[in-house]
Amino acid sequence: MSTRTPLIASTTLIILMIVLSAWSWSAIPPNAQVAIHWDLHSHANGFAPKVLALGFAPVLALVLTALFALWPRVEPRRVNLAASRYPYAAGWIGAVGILTAVHVIVVMSAIGKMLDAGSETLAAVSVLLIVLGNFLGKSRANFFVGVRTPWSLSSDLSWEKSNRISGWLLVLTGATVLTALISGPLDVAIFVMIVGTLGTALAGVITSYVYWKRDPDRHAGDGVLE
């Protein structure tokens, strides 16, 4: 499975984060406590030293990139993971992209240019849910991306149906959250996000079991790991 495109994209984002940290370094006092967490009203309620605040997101993005790049080498179902390359790449780039968005908020706040941290982050996560949802139904049974239950991993029918339904629900959740952000207060959008993601997870588990029971070609026992 080729990881070239998401590797280039994530590396570019990491470099941009490092450049942003270097650019802002001299503008932030050495002993400053930089805001890294905000409440629902974008009031800072969590702080960290400059080194940690400017370095955490790039380092975490580097760790995630290494994990995503190396996983195809150890995935037991490499052929299926290769067939799931689009949701895999979307999740990879999306995860690093979210960290990049958070890093921008942290840096801008540190130099006195406050952004709406809650709304901006939630909007980025919503877009990621929509993108992932569009690709999820096209994935094939593997151990890294998708609805991974004992039933979906031992039945192609269960995997296909549960991931397709979960994909639709993720798109619906992301779109509803974006609508809530535009038309209502942030706490409503957060509530929608929590209910939507938990509901999607529950629906994925239930549908994977239901379609596993219906599949005459399902595997049992060691078949899960074949």
How many angstroms separate the termini?
Answer: 19 Å
What is the helical fraction, as a range of percent? Answer: 55-70%
- Unreliable runs, pLDDT <50, ≥5 residues? 221-226
The order of strands across the largest sheet is: 1-2
Net shape: globular
Q: Which percent range describes the beta-strand content?
A: 5-15%
β-strand number: 2
Helical run tally = 7
Radius of gyration: 20 Å
What is the number of independent domains?
A: 2
Q: Helices and strands, in N-to-C order?
A: HEEHHHHHH
**How much is the average pLDDT?**
90
Largest sheet: 2 strands, antiparallel
Look at the helices and sheets and give the structural class: mainly alpha
List keywords for this structure.
226 residues; mainly alpha; two-stranded antiparallel ribbon; 69% helix; disordered C terminus
Present the secondary structure layout:
Blueprint: H1 4-25, E1 33-38, E2 44-49, H2 50-74, H3 78-83, H4 85-110, H5 117-136, H6 156-183, H7 186-214
Antiparallel strand pairs: 1-2
Helix pairs in contact: 1-2, 1-4, 2-4, 4-5, 5-6, 5-7, 6-7
Provide a compact summary of the structure.
The protein is mainly alpha-helical and 226 residues long. The protein has helices spanning 4-25, 50-74, 78-83, 85-110, 117-136, 156-183, 186-214, and strands at residues 33-38, 44-49.
Explain this structure to me?
The structure is a single chain. The protein is mainly alpha-helical and 226 residues long. The protein has 2 domains: 1-115, no CATH class; 140-226. Helices cover 69% and strands 5% of the residues. The chain has 7 helices and 2 strands, in the order αββαααααα. The protein has helices at residues 4-25, 50-74, 78-83, 85-110, 117-136, 156-183, 186-214, and strands spanning 33-38, 44-49. The longest helix is centred in the C-terminal third of the chain and has 29 residues, at 186-214.
